[in-house]
């Protein structure tokens, strides 16, 4: 039996329990509602941020060389939030599949521009069509793409790699003429870059054409993948295969560093005096100070410059596009040729005469990279 007092007490407990539950529910409802509205606010704020910035997705091909590192730095320095850009950087690690994945991700992220430094020239049609369908302009930088429809990319900026190769070959021709070295005495090995990359295709062609025209013996063309390690490995085996090599044409400085190590370890002497049995090293880029110092030491006899500072160039293209101006489809960068030897002071390729920059410490110190 429950007495009346106990009944009243139980009713009061139930009531207060109901009130507490009601209050808890109210609090929960309010907090859910407020978290919902604050989430909405966050989304709005983010929208405002991405509207505020120009979003650039950059697919860099890798980090194989000093040239590449300088190029990456130049791009990162050009596209800063302080300047109104948001740069999404992806390193393809030398694999085209990685670069294609990066581009597809950029499309999903609805970036404003895609910048592509392609590892090799072919194989881009499908993914560039996808970018075009999404209405995202694609700027190609450094190496080129070989696509059936040129409207798949907005424009390209980079170097004339075949011209670099032709300049180097012409330097060698003038050197042998001035030093009265017979063309049949010249025995060259070419340590090529990554096969299928524009820089390899152009530089290889520049030398191969000149070898044919001048009657030089081109003993071998082997890839060194633009790296120091591979350059060394390849040179070691070439030295075992051929005992008459007197010119090593390296398609970048990192390969040259490796080749120089291999030549020195094999007990051979490096330098431009090939008539006395030295092995002459020729190279491309001229980015790292060490490479330029090697020129002064006649370890690398001649370097055809390849300029990596494309960040401001790509930025200028994007600024033009933002202003409704159509940029040139192809923009080539002017480049120098360096040697410490004074034997050749200028050379002619096509209709143009190029001065050879006779390198000094002062010139090295004044360079911007
Ligand atoms: O010469 C080499 C790099 O594509 C121009 O790639 C670039 C080349 C450069 O690995 O060092």
Structure summarized in a few sentences:
This protein has 369 residues and is α/β, with parallel strands linked by helices.
Protein described:
The protein has 369 residues and is α/β, with parallel strands linked by helices. The protein is 47% helix and 19% strand. It contains 11 helices and 14 strands. The protein has helices at residues 4-52, 66-78, 96-108, 125-133, 161-178, 198-214, 228-241, 253-265, 289-296, 311-322, 361-366, and strands at 54-60, 85-91, 113-116, 138-141, 155-158, 187-192, 217-223, 247-250, 280-285, 302-305, 330-332, 337-339, 346-349, 352-358. The strands form 2 sheets. The protein has an 8-stranded mixed sheet, with helices on both faces. Strand 9, helix 9 and strand 10 form a beta-alpha-beta unit. Helix 2 (66-78) packs parallel to helix 10 (311-322), helix 5 (161-178) runs parallel beside helix 6 (198-214) and helix 7 (228-241) crosses helix 8 (253-265). The N and C termini lie far apart (98 Å). The relative contact order is 0.11. Mean pLDDT is 91; it is low at 25-46. Bound molecules: beta-D-fucofuranose. Beta-D-fucofuranose binds at residues 64-65, 67-68, 142-143, 159, 197, 199, 226, 252, 284-285, 306.
